[in-house]
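Attaching the record inline, Q. Sequence:
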Amino acid sequence: MDAAKQIFADGMARFPGDASLANSAANLAMRLGDFELAERQFSQASMLDLGNLEFTLNRAIALARLGHHGQAISVLRPVEEEGWNDPKYCSARGAAERALGNLALAAKWYDRAIVLEPGHARALHGRARVSIEQGDPSAQQRFDAALAITQGDADLWLGKAQALDVAGDAKSAREIAEALVEQAPHWTEGLRFLAQLKLGAGETEFAGHYADAVRRVPQDPNIPFAWIALLEGNDRSTEAAEIAADARRKFPQTEPFALMEAVNSGSAGDDDRAEAIFADLGLGTPDRHLQEARHRIRRGELDRAEGLLDLVLAAEAWNISAFALLGVIWRLKDDDRARGRARWLHDQAGLVRLLPLIGADETLPDVASLLRALHDSSALPLGQSLRGGTQTRGILFDRTEPVLSELRAALLETIEEYRAGLPATDTAHPLLRHRDEGWKLAGSWSVRLNGGGDFHTSHIHPQGLVSSALYLEVPQADNPEAEEGWLEVGRPPPDLRLNLPPLQTIEPKPGHLALFPSTLYHGTRPFSAGRRMTVAFDVTLSESELK
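Structure, as predicted:
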């Protein structure tokens, strides 16, 4: 490979105007995994031979491998007319549209690729994935069609298992998941899906198969890494700390294991053990500083915690998790400057609101009926804030039911009312700096909690600007003064072990939408009887603003 790469470099130096040579050199770079070099060389080939569909398509594929899906579509769009009759173009266009969340367009391009070439493996696979993401009942059949072409694709088998699970055939889904884990114990996607099925079945030891995978593939650090993260997200910190300690011994050069042991030791209450690890830890990443700041807060070392969060913001200026912890620190500090900053961050009028959903009476009855049916075949998700209850699979607004499109439109209209009531633009504020920019919805889902102990533990959504809860069903309150089932905004998470009350409590009302900055911790109180069903999402910057 090195010799081939050198020959191409020499050839391109001698013949810089040869488009085919640049394209061939780029193909080698793709095989070597150097996608940045490949993209530059494919771009050169395309410029030397304008309109060449193959070279343009290759460049778009390289951009997609780099995660630049919007740029890939920009490259593909000018040759769309010629590409309409090329299955490779149609499949690549479908993949790029899917990566950007444009599922209807992705389905269109994948379908066109399959018309042109019925056995096109990538298009069949991509179309099957789109169908499950859209909640299409044909998903299982589409995975079967793709598997008829590519029997050995583990991700296709995983997709079929997921489709079976959605259809209510948990037994068949589990058989496939167990076969995948048996044949590919290193594949963390398969391990995680089997854990989800076990959790959904109510099994306490839902992660036991990770231990077997570690024994079978002892040289792979990715397995314990995924195992620790899974336990950490499901309140199993003591167990996670021990697995991290074992991984540290086996992989002494992999410093993230030391960080994971410190994080989980602290969460489990062993502050001295966490302190010893942090004292020797050489890792200087923003995540290390963020996690040590949590440790310092537990120990009451607020100045040190604030200094660590300043380091996070120096590297990642608008880190939502860092601002969330700073909000807690500023509330805890007993000085006027800190109290003023706490009010500025979270306590300005208009930042936290409960608004009636525009058009709720027309939209919500049909939405509630659909969601009840979806929850009846959903399960408690892995690694989320739920403690009990169920959460719908996937991204809710990727589904194709018309009533969900109506709900999305109503939410966007109501969000504009929230925006209009915000304080003035403030370039130093993590939300208000974006007050007048383009917003979009991201990551939508529905949660149903049952009386008797279900609740959301306090958490944040670090990828959002604004977080939410739309109430469709709420439990009947026997004792309103107890505020059962109410939303708490601003109470720190339990692992910080702080006796700090919420900034606000919000009584849930059917047809009303709670909106608040994503830097605010939030959770719900348990309730004794009835059901609570919500739709939630994050507000983020639109694609145009991200550019």
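The mean pLDDT is 93. Residues 457 and 523 are 5 Å apart (CA to CA).

More tomorrow.
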